Amino acid sequence: MPREIFQRFLIEKRLKLTKERIEVLNEVFSAHDHFGPEQLYLRLRNAGSKASRASVYRTLNLLVESGLVEKITRTDKGSVYEHTYGHTHHDHMVCSICNRIVEFYSEYLEQLQDEICKKHKFSGVSHSLEIKGYCETCRKQ
Amino acid sequence: MPREIFQRFLIEKRLKLTKERIEVLNEVFSAHDHFGPEQLYLRLRNAGSKASRASVYRTLNLLVESGLVEKITRTDKGSVYEHTYGHTHHDHMVCSICNRIVEFYSEYLEQLQDEICKKHKFSGVSHSLEIKGYCETCRKQ
DNA sequence: AGACTAGTTGATATTAAATCTCAATTTCAG
DNA sequence: CTGAAATTGAGATTTAATATCAACTAGTCT
Ligand SMILES: [Mn+2]
Ligand SMILES: [Mn+2]
Ligand SMILES: [Zn+2]
Ligand SMILES: [Zn+2]
Q1: Tally of CB atoms within 10 A around B75
Q2: How far off is chain A from B48, nearest CA to CA, in Å?
Q3: How many angstroms separate the Cα of A5 from the Cα of each of A25, A114, B93, B123, B141?
Q4: Which nucleotides of D are covered by protein (CB under 7 A)?
Q5: Cβ–Cβ of A133/B124 closer than 8 Å?
Q6: Which one of A13, A130, B125, B141 is most buried, counting C-beta atoms within 10 A?
């Protein structure tokens, strides 16, 4: 299904569905996690793909543009992505010790943000909320 | 006042209060806005300071460590800072067209986040919420 | 199917934010 | 004042990400 959406997106933009793009797409959707470009590149290599780093970066940008993938955050060690197709919107808590990521969602929080936008006459399109702190297991140490 | 806090911080860490650090501190607190390292460097030059980029970067890190300044966000064109001493906590809306920044605060939003953390047994320390969209003036075009 | 054309690829170069190196200089405790 | 320890600036280095471009494909048209 992501494959069809991506294909439609590419046709729309008069771009081509290449072997490399398919491989990147498949790898991105082979697991639900949070990954960086280099990490993705190594996984692809491991899976037998010969796609280059350049193609991984280029395809990631296309996947973000198509709406199938989101760039979650930028750290000092590069960007973090996740595929969002097949998953409902959520935000993240990040443990400062073990880097574990806790996903959460609150309908109430979303509504509250809408209200705040209205109050400031701002037309909100997207948001990213990242809570930093300590996860349960790390706090017990 | 930020000066005294910074001084205490430096003594604590057995670091020295140099001309360059004072100049950076003063420039950072001379206006309340959101700035990048290069921007800050150019303002300093303009104000007659001879502090180098290296010192600007180094001092910014110290100011963040001391709690006087926060790194708000990282864009593809570098980090954005603001001084927080003398200002209450707030989050940001960013206009995708004119890059205007709208600051906002909601006690309710903060409480809600605390509750969500509790529900996920996460010990929240800090958070950053950035809402992207269109500001009032840009929407009218 | 074959051929044409516009888009893609990978190797490599380049860019740019941020950090590192280190000799010369400055701070500040004693 | 003095000296040890920290800091500075210039330039080198690191590294994520993008740009370049000749060789190569994908997909369309006949
Ligand atoms: Mn997620
Ligand atoms: Mn602000
Ligand atoms: Zn943890
Ligand atoms: Zn605007």
Answers
A1: 12
A2: 31
A3: 11, 29, 30, 39, 31
A4: 5-11, 15-20, 25-28
A5: yes
A6: A130
CATH assignment, B2-83: 1.10.10.10
How many C-beta atoms lie closer than 10 Å to residue B38's C-beta?
13
Number of H helices, E strands in chain B: 6, 5
Strands (E), A23-97: 69-75, 78-83, 91-95
What is the domain class of A91-140 according to CATH?
alpha beta
Tell if the pTM clears 0.90, that is, is over it. yes
- AA letter at A22: I
d(CA A111, CA A70): 21
d(CA A120, CA A117): 5
| Boundaries of every domain in chain A | 2-83, 91-140
Quote the pLDDT of residue B138.
Answer: 95
Q: What span, in angstroms and rounded, lies between the C-alpha atoms of A102 and A33?
A: 11
Q: What pLDDT was estimated at residue A32?
A: 93
Q: Is residue A27 very low, low, confident or very high in pLDDT (cuts 50, 70, 90)? A: very high
Assess B64–A contact: CB distance below 8 Å, yes or no.
no
